[in-house]
Amino acid sequence: MVQKKAAVVILYQPDESVKNRIRSYIQHVEKLYIIDNTEAAAFSTHPLLSDYPKKITLINEGVNEGIAKRLNQACSLALEEGFDYLLTMDQDSWFDETVVKAYFKCINDFKERATVSMFGVNHEKKITGTDCSYQECNFLITSGSVINLEAYKKVGPFDEDLFIDFVDAEYCFKSIEHGFKIIKFPNIFMHHSLGEIQTKISLKNLKPRGRTFHSPARLYYMTRNILYIQSKYTHRFKKDISKYKKDLLNRIKNNLLYKNNKVQTIKMLLKAFKDYKNKRMGKLQD
């Protein structure tokens, strides 16, 4: 049975290069929802619109509603239009030629796909093959993942209290608790960047090393949201949450040791703890 496939890409202050990234997957879906979260958004899809006039739906409201709400919006639209699966993409992610076709074939050939809430790919180490070997896991990043929309109706929406960061982890955990699987195809590779990478001289061994940096606001969301998820899933996924916390501590350390925004970073971290304690979720408030 041929499955109907749509895609969504959520934008925030995109540059023109995003159009070439979109071209890497748009021809493999029947519909693409482009949702621009930029305040006073002015993203133009031309010449994408002229190339795919019936395929693109542009949502451009001039307000940043975060990731979770926009994913729910796209899932609702895709369900209304009769789609079975939704490919979710970040603006800084793309596939090499032929990879998306191979990815969808792996999903279509997966015998127990009705039991899978989300399929995903490898974005960490590039490989040359595209075979359909798979592994069951507890977590996938949103970008490059394919949501089973029938499962979405049973699992429930992405948690909009998070706004951004760990939205994907929470949905994966919730899916597993509802009896669904999370499946990763490690030989399907997607190009993806996470944060700003700069080369800095290590204070430990004085050797240059690439380090990932995030704005103080992003560290706020990461810190507040991991505390929220830890409290929401107190009896399961302890190893996964411990790993996320260790990774977050490393990101915080990078900012405090190697960036010039130490004071603002500390202020945002303190606010994250305070807001979590006071149950202030959603979009960061001044």
TrEMBL record:
Keywords (A to Z) from UniProt: Glycosyltransferase, Transferase
Keyword Glycosyltransferase: yes
One example GO MF annotation: glycosyltransferase activity
Annotated InterPro entries: Nucleotide-diphossugar_trans
PANTHER family listed in its UniProt record: GALACTOFURANOSYLTRANSFERASE GLFT2 (PTHR43179:SF12), RHAMNOSYLTRANSFERASE WBBL (PTHR43179)
Family to which this protein belongs: Belongs to the glycosyltransferase 2 family.
UniProt name for this protein: Rhamnosyltransferase
Source organism of the structure: Parafilimonas terrae
